[in-house]
Write a structure and sequence with these properties.
Layout (H helix, E strand, L loop, with lengths): L2 E10 L4 E9 L2 E6 L7 E4 L4 E4 L1 E6 L4 E2 L2 E2 L6 H8 L2 E8 L7 H11 L6 E7 L5 H12 L4 E5 L10 H13 L3 E5 L3 H13 L6 H5 L3 H18 L3 E3 L5 H12 L4 E5 L2 H4 L2 H5 L15 H13 L4 E2 L14 E3 L2 E3 L24 H11 L5 H15 L17 E11 L18 E11 L2 E5 L2 E2 L19
Parallel strand pairs: 1-4, 1-5, 6-9, 9-10, 10-11, 11-12, 12-13, 13-14, 14-15
Antiparallel strand pairs: 1-2, 2-3, 5-18, 7-8, 16-17, 18-19, 19-20, 20-21
Helix pairs in contact: 4-7, 7-8
The structure holds N-(aminocarbonyl)-beta-alanine and zinc ion (ZN) (2 copies).
């Protein structure tokens, strides 16, 4: 079996920092310690940090929306992720409008055949009846152990509280984890109708019609429903101070509730949506205020928030003008679809490759979180919560050799020219980064070296996830 020795690095795990060598054999980590292995390729990692590959628990690749599709697919999105140090992503399968989950599972498995990094799936539950309820346990057999529900997008994706409760109860019975998108769909619908009637069409009205307190009320309601269903629950893309307060209340009062936030909610505010190019920042839930940014940082620092996802759901800002991607011109309809009507702007932002470098600079270099907390937030906690640990998210012998050799001194002027997302803009344009992946390995294979890509279409493998995973 092919061996590779990474010597003289500093291993960073969620709990330890150790100066150590690390041996890869085939697809696995086989040893750590002071290692002398004859006849082996050696990488000198002096001055570098060795971390488990990132696990992004929240991405939308090749997702149809508003008559277009998110502009990264499982190949391009995985490639962009890898350049930022992420080697596994969890994508969401849309429940079909009629019939069995199986129809969509097959569709998404087929889309993902081209995946360039490892991947798993969550299942959206956006329609409920007795047949749906009966089919839920069959998902576990296929390694899909998480069910996402929405408290917004009335008439399209939302489940009412009774049905959320029913799904949560079923999830608890089979060791699955419900995930909830928290906004108040009823209030949003009223405000959107009023805004359009008053002739408000610009991007900022997206945020103005989705109040922060609606996200707060939905987090609290979700927590209370989970408690009544005796189920754990995971709040996706937490974006507000008031929501975080409810997370803390729930956790302090015995609700098995976990929360994820996403980098844009730490940096951007409603004011960004007021810019002429404000559509770039449109996603749901929306950007909020500086007070919310600050509060979410405290949630990361004190452990109230356990994971950093991206909710990567990119669209072109101007999908009428092609960009060059792998030597070819490509344009995919995007944010311009909502020119003159904010309700028609595809919801979502790019971020899959930004996540680790941006969090390293703004979190670790700034001293807000430790390198170990960084690994916990970007890899290990998600691996544990989503049933992939210790195969993913760890540097233990026996784990998959998904490894990032991180250069903590590398300085990068970040932006669309560096990030590898298949879109025409980057939210962090002009940000000065310190610390960047130098080498990235997926199950022992080198896929990224500095700005060079060695990965291949189809080399990503589907990851079956275990039920009854950790509750952090
Ligand atoms: O705007 C967003 N976040 N688009 C993706 C769908 C979702 O709710 O996560
Ligand atoms: Zn959502
Ligand atoms: Zn999402």
């Amino acid at each position: 079996m092919k061996k590779l020795l990474i010597k003289n690095g500093t291993l960073i795990t969620a709990s330890e920092t150790i100066k150590s060598d690390l041996l890869i054999e085939g697809e696995k980590i086989s040893a750590i310690g002071d290692l002398h292995v004859p006849d082996t390729g050696v990488i000198d990692a002096s001055g570098k940090l060795i971390m488990p590959g990132g696990l992004d628990p929240h991405v939308h690749l090749d997702l149809p929306m508003f008559g277009t599709v998110s502009s990264d697919d499982h190949y391009t999105g995985g490639k962009a992720a890898a350049f930022g140090g992420t080697t596994t992503v969890l994508d969401f399968i849309a429940q079909p409008d009629t019939g069995s989950f199986q129809i969509s599972i097959e569709e998404w498995m087929q889309k993902a055949e081209k995946a360039s990094i490892d991947y798993g799936f969550h299942m959206n539950v956006t329609r409920m009846d007795e047949n749906v309820l009966k089919e839920i346990p069959s998902l576990v057999d296929q390694g899909i152990t998480t069910l996402k529900m929405f408290t917004a997008y009335n008439g399209r994706l939302r489940l009412d509280d009774g049905n959320i409760f029913r799904v949560m109860r079923a999830a608890a019975e089979f060791g699955m984890l419900p995930m909830v998108h928290c906004e108040n769909g009823d209030v949003i619908d009223i405000l959107v109708e009023e805004a359009l009637q008053a002739g408000h069409t610009t991007p900022v009205w997206h945020a103005r019609t989705r109040p922060a307190w609606g996200a707060g009320d939905a987090v609290l309601r979700t927590a209370m429903l989970a408690k009544q269903a005796d189920a754990p629950v995971y709040i996706v893309h937490l974006n507000t101070r008031v929501g975080l307060d409810q997370v803390r209340y729930a956790r302090e009062n015995g609700v098995k509730l976990m929360a994820e936030t996403c980098p844009p909610y730490l940096f951007f505010t409603e004011e960004h949506l007021e810019r002429p190019d404000g559509a770039k920042w449109i996603c749901s839930p929306p950007m909020r205020s500086e007070e919310d940014n600050r509060a979410l940082w405290t949630g990361l620092e004190d452990g109230s928030i356990q994971t950093m996802g991206t909710d990567h759901c990119p669209f072109f800002f101007d999908g009428t003008t092609p960009i060059e991607y792998e030597g070819e011109k490509i344009a995919i309809p995007g944010k311009e679809l909502g020119k003159g009507d904010f309700t028609k702007i595809p919801n979502g932002t790019p971020g899959i490759g930004d996540r680790m470098p941006v969090l390293w600079t703004s979190g670790v270099v700034s001293g807000r979180i430790t390198p170990n907390e960084f690994v916990a937030l970007t890899s290990t906690n998600a691996a544990r919560i989503f049933g992939l640990y210790p195969r993913k998210g760890s540097l233990m012998p026996g784990a998959d050799a998904d490894i990032v050799v991180w250069d903590p001194n590398k300085k990068v002027d970040y932006g669309v020219a560096v990030a590898q997302h298949r879109t025409d803009y980057n939210l962090y344009e002009g940000m000065k980064l310190q610390g960047f992946p130098e080498l990235v390995f997926l199950r022992g294979k080198l896929i990224v070296e500095k700005q060079q890509w060695f990965g291949k279409r189809g080399m990503g493998q589907y990851q079956k996830r275990a039920p009854r995973a950790a509750i952090l």
